[in-house]
Amino acid sequence: MGSGLSPQAFFPAEGQAGYQLHSCPQNIRGMRLLVRVLKRYAGEIRPGNPWQVLVSCVLSQRTKEEKTAEASRRLFSRARTPEELEKLGLRELEKLIKPAGFYRQKARRLKEIARTILERYGGTVPKTREELLKLPGVGWKTSAVVLSYGWGIPIIAVDIHTARISKRLGLVRPDAGPEDVRKRLEGVFRKQDWLIVNLGMVNFGRQVCRPIRPRCEECPLKRICKFYNDRLSLPSRTARVRSGQG
Fold it and tell me: Yes or no: is domain 50-150 CATH 2.60.120.10?
């Protein structure tokens, strides 16, 4: 680690000196590296369609990403707005989103959400967390995803990739919940970088910091990653098992 960076210097434990990541030179260099890498993986950031982001988020609950994408494609080929979804029969809607798990419950939920948006908001997805949380079945995570990816409003939306990367880097404790992760990330990243953090961590988690068989050796963050450096001190067999390669 000739650069002077280390996971311990970059990510001090909560309560220790340097816990605020901008408080020492090592932390500043580490943060610059992390933001630079996340920018590369985020690519061009453009807000999506708030309604379709909301629908996809509902479909993603307890469903694998590829199945969510398939169900979303099928549905949006027939209904791209709340009005069009509301006109679909319930059985037809169930058939369209069947690749997603619990499709019957989700079909009813989507009907309720579409009806509420049409009746209360004139067909436009709400643009505030307070109003989004009033929609049937919409919680903290879904509201954050819609605000961030749908409306382009700076807010940290914690998904499985964001949580996994934050824990592996050592940003948060291994047992940290989504709200702990959100508060930590919003505390250490500049607000202007929050959208980059969201999309960058999702793409980085899919391509490099994967849940199984992470590509640690080619990871541009390995020198400041607690997970990687902890593995270096383990016997080779144990390290392979920990990384999902054994």
Answer: no
